[in-house]
Amino acid sequence: MRKSPAFSLTDGPMLPAIIRFSIPLMASNVLQVLFNMSDIAVVGRFAGAQALGSVGSTTILVTLFTGFLIGMGSGVNVVTARYLGAEKHRDVSQTVHTSAVLLLATGVLLAAFGVLLTPFLLHLLGTKEVLLAGAIRYLRIYLLGMPGLAVFNFGNGVLSASGDTKRPLLFLSMAGVLNVALNLLFVIVFRMAEAGVALASAVSQTLSAGLIVLSLARRQESIGLRFSRLKVDAAKCRQVLSISVPSGLQNAIFALANLFIQAGVNTFDAVVVEGTAAASNADGLVYDVMAAVYLACSSFMSQNYGAGHKERVKRSYLLCLGLSFGIAAVMSAVLVFFGRPFLSLFTRDAEVVEAGLTRLRVMGCSYAFSALMDCTIAASRGLGRSMVPTVIVMLGSCVFRVIWVFTVFAHFHTILSLYLLYIFSWTITGIAELVYFIHCYRDRVLRA
After folding, report:
1. With b meaning 16 or more CB within 10 Å and e meaning fewer, what string describes 31-50?
2. How many CA atoms lie within 13 A of 132 on its CB side?
3. pLDDT digit string (tens) for 58-103?
4. Do 221 and 1 meet the contact criterion of CB atoms below 8 Å apart?
5. CA gyration radius for the chain?
6. In sequence order, what are the residues at sequence separation of 6 or more whose Cβ sits closer than 8 angstroms to the Cβ of residue 91?
7. Distance CA 162, CA 96 (A)
């Protein structure tokens, strides 16, 4: 059997391995943020404000669908990593082929569901009538790329479970370059406006899926994909779904909870709303870089748990927690120090920049506290526990936020009282997740 080119997650110094594992993932996530920004920039500059508004009005639904598929991919990652660590190659192969069918079917169902219900969903969100036709056109075309996105997340989960995070980065980079080129071609040359950027996204997502499937089909070891073996094993399907569905629902519900926060922001004047929108661009950069460490945490913990390396299981969590906290602290300091130049990328209005600085400063003191919550959730999932962490995060970071908006914020009605809900919700949820993780660690690792 040909040895995988990826490095080992169960042997050798851990911190260098975690960093080596995480850097390509960080680059992948940042690239996705930049490519999404390019969509907005192209349609805004070359198709006009109405097309930009149509695309922007679909953001919450796009986040719901894509977040769910990313969560599904994390379930594939955890189960595959566990069997790789235990060197159960037959189980690895069954997991890979079951997951391929499962995620492709999920992507097709999401696309069909979304295309059929797009008008209803956009009406439900209160999309402005003048933007509705363009929003429907954009979302329906964009959702055609959901099967491709699902397959890419399947392949990314499998490859990262084996320690290979470079190939997904390469494939994503190639698809991203195509996305930008097609954006310019469809919008500037063919004048397709919002339909053009949607079609560019769908095509690029399909390309990334094709590349990652081709890569897996050429692998000879147990993670190799063979079309003749594509079938669903009931036991492996249950294992993947038990982790991936709660993870996907968590990502989707976060987007819904943020609607209430946005509603609170919208009670202020236009300057505050625009400043918040500009400053919010920092969230994706920070969160997505930290998310790479969380995937490293679940991958390392799952493989070492499968291999029976108890001390490395604990060290995986502690190192990833420290690393994600440090990354958030450094990025926050840079964003606060260079806040004005950063915000000037999105607006030239001095008042809007000042309003955005308020949010950047508060969030700069808050981002690091999200590491306790998210890294601990990843650790619990690495041990095969997903449902309870999801319920905790729904209560602590979703329900709590809604309650905060209608109590604390409603009482003080200051933008500061709204922004502070992030650090409070992350801290409370993080402590609850830590208590549950300690219970899981004692039950599943120490007593094993």
Report:
1. bbbebbebbbebbeebbeee
2. 13
3. 777 887 888 889 889 989 999 999 999 999 999 999 999 999 999 9
4. yes
5. 21
6. 83, 236
7. 12
